[in-house]
Design goal:
Layout lengths: L12 E4 L5 H12 L3 E6 L3 H13 L4 E5 L5 H15 L4 E4 L14 H26 L7 E6 L12 H21 L3 E8 L10 H8 L10 H12 L7 E5 L20
Parallel strand pairs: 1-2, 1-4, 2-3, 4-5, 5-6, 6-7
Helix pairs in contact: 1-7, 3-4, 4-5
């Protein structure tokens, strides 16, 4: 694990996992603009994470870049320790990093499920636990966990089976953690819809999928970042999820949108 120390004595500190790219990057930029100091986690995207850190520092945001494989329990524990070491405090974690690999019932295996559960479920639970332990050393202060989920939990289909099971477990963990960690830590979720092109989806397929909602648009990275920022500063909200998807979860789909739109 590598880190760049940053002092932020008067700012709340948020750890954003998977912060180097895509939605994680948008979340980091939004939180930086709202006055948070940031621990930017990545697994293998050091160059992109360092570039984002430079951009944030130029805007006056204290930043630390931290590397860890969240599928590894010891590295995840060390990640939590590194946040406190870098800033001297820790106030929130945004569990954005996610393993997203395709399988279905025909391809299902113990190994595929375990890999998804380690990164997508176990790591967020452990980081919430470590945040709670830290905040108990600061009596009277409250922290927050925001878990990135998926609208398909409310609009299920059997594609991406292991990924979906891991996110379903994390959604249940929202409730359990909100109960177990109160009143010290609030635990919330944000469930995006079709937000960015991923996997084998084509540009035209993504553009079509993005409009397949009651509102005629799905979520953008900025929509997700704003929802995360709201929850981090909403002291009366815990144990619930904001589904930010243009209403996609209201329109039943039998397959993942990848298979409902043109793709290579």
């Amino acid at each position: 694990m590598s880190s760049t120390t940053a002092s932020a004595p008067h700012r709340p500190v948020a750890l954003v996992t998977g912060a180097a790219r895509r939605i994680g990057r948008a979340i980091a930029l939004e939180l930086g603009a709202q006055g948070w100091a940031l621990a930017l986690h990545h697994r293998r995207s050091d160059e992109q994470a360092q570039s984002l850190a430079t951009e944030l520092r130029e805007r006056g945001t204290p930043v630390s870049v931290l590397q860890a494989d969240l599928a590894d329990e010891s590295q995840t524990r060390s990640l939590a320790e590194s946040v406190v070491a870098a800033f001297g405090r820790w106030d929130a974690v945004v569990n954005n990093a996610s393993l997203f690999e395709y399988d279905d019932i025909a391809a299902f295996s113990y190994e595929a499920l375990e890999q998804h559960l380690r990164t997508n479920t176990a790591a967020p639970v452990l980081l919430a636990q470590r945040l709670h332990t830290h905040l108990k050393t600061r009596p009277g202060e409250q922290g927050c966990v925001v878990n990135l989920l998926d609208q398909k939990l409310w609009n299920p289909n059997p594609d991406y089976l292991s990924y979906t099971l891991s996110k379903a477990a994390l959604e249940s963990a929202n409730t359990l953690l909100a109960q177990a960690l109160a009143p010290v830590v609030r635990v919330c979720g944000v469930a995006p819809g079709v937000t960015l092109l991923s996997g084998p989806m084509s540009e035209s397929g993504f553009a079509q999928a993005h409009t397949m909602t009651p509102l005629g648009r799905s979520s953008t990275p900025q929509d997700i970042a704003q929802a995360v920022a709201f929850l981090l500063k909403a002291p009366a909200v815990t144990g619930t999820t904001l589904v930010v998807d243009g209403g996609q979860h209201l329109a039943a789909q039998s397959r993942d949108v990848l298979f409902l739109t043109p793709h290579p």
